[in-house]
Each structure stands twice: as structure tokens, then as C-alpha cells.
Amino acid sequence: MSMPRQYITTAIDYPNAAPHMGHVLEKVLADVCARWFRLRGDEVRFQIGTDEHGIKVQRTAESEGLTAKKLVDRNVPMFEDLYRKLGISYDKFIRTSDQKEHWPTVVELWKKLDSAGMLEKRSYTGMYCSGCERFMTKKDLDDKGQCENHKKAPEEVTEENYFFLMSKDSENLKKLLTKNWDKEEYRIVPQFRENETLSLIDQGLEDVSFSRPKSSLSWGIPVPDEEAQTMYVWCDALTNYISGLGLLTDHEEREWWDDAEITHVIGKDIARFHALIWPSMLKHGGVRTPDKLLIHGFLTSEGEKMSKSTGNVVVPNDVLEKFGGDPDPLRFYLSHEVPVGRDGDFSWDRIEKLYDSKLRNDLGNLLNRVLVLLKKEGGDLGDFGSDPKLLGDKWKKYQESMNAFRLEDGVSLAVELATECNQFIDKNKPWELKGDEKVNLLTQLAEALRHVALMLLPFTPGTSERILKQLGLKAPETLEGKIDWGAEKSWKKVGEAEILFEPLED
Is 150 one of the annotated active-site residues of the chain? Predict the structure, then answer.
């Protein structure tokens, strides 16, 4: 029997500047999901990438005296390097400037939309926000007439563009979003984000600008048979999810779209485009919709929006450097402190306190105490016995939480188990025991620590691997046959104790 397939993607990042903490939040969230899918035995394909065309990139390049191509070729490696440091386990990195892999699918999808009567060329005057890369209406602006995301008034633009006729699809999209939650077909997660999308439909959908004159936007994919027009971000960037699989070309990996459960992980600021424009494009392009749209919130800094002007921007590499290059404290923080779908906050004080209390003390010191005491007895394990009420139904709750994308609950269960282990060791005082009684109690604690490490594998893979190595075990590829108490029947001896987390320097 073949394994279930999971195709998980993230939004592709603008490389007009260095990556920021919002990029990190999204990639860690998606990576936790991808690692969890693998652990439960699914076959996984995980894709990330960069959205390299558009006005923002073009203008940044011009301001630096570079071509757009040179700018993205300089900046994209910064994203790849950061994600390597973070342990993001992606299988495919797509670049929209890739004329061999990306462009052919985009061109074919455009042709299909045109044949379906969903594209119309017309003259248009509107308010254009370069930050959002779209035309705005008054309802998109705040009381000052500014874009709510970028706090800048859009510029009035008059030009001839191709438009995608979204207004035709209101009823179809409403049916798509309302009929399938119970069937678990097309879902927006968390569900309250779905309600936000439905309200947008009720307000009335407008046609979407799908191209710009080449005189305004030269950096991008030309419209088929019309070199004077450049494809706009929606047909170009959104199509990465299928171009990464070669769909609509002669090298399709169709099984990863047709025969997989598809989850898009994106931020709330671009939710409307993925929840409305993208499904409509797929329908008229003859391609099925994804299964889940997992939407995350924003990340603030010390309770305030990150801004260069206020000097509160958190640089991802600075956080990694604080913890000696180990990505797991940051991965743990984001997973533990930012509920999926909600806004979260990054605090230097909070991450340091969490590192000291939960990682160094509750986990690191516990592991060290158990191993040192066992080594004094020779390092051999004794009788595992039955679960001394440490594990209980935690695995049932853990699996339910992870499958429902309540990832913060999943990591909290691992933390809870470590805390209860500390309480167990303080209550039973193994250092006061002797012989088999001492070894057997320490064996139970070692077994509980094995379960902590397994639960933390999606969140802090490096830490879990180090814990398991010190216990004398290897990290499993899947959890099959591993989550019962005493499941490792051949496990007889622990390894050497090492410091799991170093103290922070002042």
C-alpha cells in the first residue's frame, strides 16, 4: 500500500531586501508541518522559493544602480542560506526568474485563462500601491487614504492592462468556501480566517489587474503574443505552486497535485489572493484547487510593528548568533509562543527566559541528571515497567493537535511531559535509592525523555537528535512502532551525557 502524499508550500519571498522575521515565522511553521507529516508516515514534497519579478524589485534595483537580474541573483542566496541555518527541510526551491522551469507553466496557464474568456484588455485609472503590488479601492485604505499595511497613499495610475474577470466568480467561490468544511475538502485554517474571506465576497469582488505595460514594468514574463505587456504578480507568482511540479508542460509531476493533499502556508496579508484569485485561476485553468490554506498572523517586536524608523527590527541572523548558531531556540520560541493563525510577538527577554527555563533547565538539566546517575550505575538500563502516569494520553492529544494544525498545543505537550519528569525525579529522589530500584526508576525517566524527544522532533529536530543520541538511540524516520511505553525492545544502554544547551553570554 502506497503512503499518503502531502504537498506543502509556502508563499514565495520577495528578494528585494534581506529576509526578515516574518519569513522565518512562515518557513518554521511550514517545516514543522512537513516534518510532522513525514513522522506520521506520509510521503512529503515541500516547496519554498522567491517571487522575483515586479515593481518593488525593479525600483530597488534602479535605486542601487543594478539590473533587476543582478539584484535578485545577489539577494536570493541570503534566503537560501538563512533557511539552511534554520533547518528548513524543503525539497524544492523555485525561482520565478527561472525561464526553464517556471515560465512555461505560467504562459500555458495564461493561455488557458484567455481561452476560457476570463481575460479582458481595457484602459483603467486607479490607485496603485507599489508595496502591495495591486490597485486599491477606497475600502482598502484607512481614514487618511493610506494603505493599511504600508501606511502610504497609493499613486494614481492610468494605463491599459489585461484584467482577470474575478467578478464572474463570486458565487462559485462562495460555494467552494462554504460547502466543504465538514467534508475536509477545501478548507481555510483556522476557520475564523475563512469567515474573513467570505465577508470579502459579500462586499463584492472586483476584476483584478493581470498585466502592466512594459513601459511601466519591464522586469517580468511577457504576455503571450503581446510583448508590450508584462504579466503582473498574480498569474506569475501564484503559479509557482504548479510550475514547481511542471504542470501544463511536458514534464509534469502530476501525482503531487492530483494525488496528494495540498496545503498552502501563507500570511494573513495575502490571504485574499490565495483564497480567491488562486482558486478562480485554477478552476478556469482546468486544475483542481488545493485542500487547505493555512494562514498565519503577523509578528511584532516587543509589542510594536517592526519598523526601521523605530529601530525595532529583529534580524534573524542576530537571533541565531545569540544562541551559537543553533536554530532550535528560535524554532521552539515561534512554535510555543505564536498560536497558528494568530499574531505573535518577538521579545528578546521572553526568548532568553524561555531558553533558560524550558530548554536549559527543564529539559537539558533533566537529561543530564538522569544520564549521570545511570552512568554511575554502569549505564545499563533496567526494567521499563509500565508508564508511571507520565505519558498517559499525551500521544493521543499530541496527534490530534498536530493533525489539526494546533502546533502550539503539540509542543506544549512535550514541555508538559518534561516538567512532569522533573517533578517525578524530585518526588522520588533516585539519588537516595540503591540497586535495581534506583536503576529501574532512572530507566523510566530515560524512557519518558525518549518520548519528549520524539514529540519535539518536528519543532527542534537538532535538539531531539542530540537527546536521542545521548540516550543511546537514533532519531526514527517515522513514529510507527515508537510511541508505546517501552517500544524500543533492543534498547539496553544509554550513551554519554553532554551539555544540551550552553548558558547564554551576557
Answer: yes
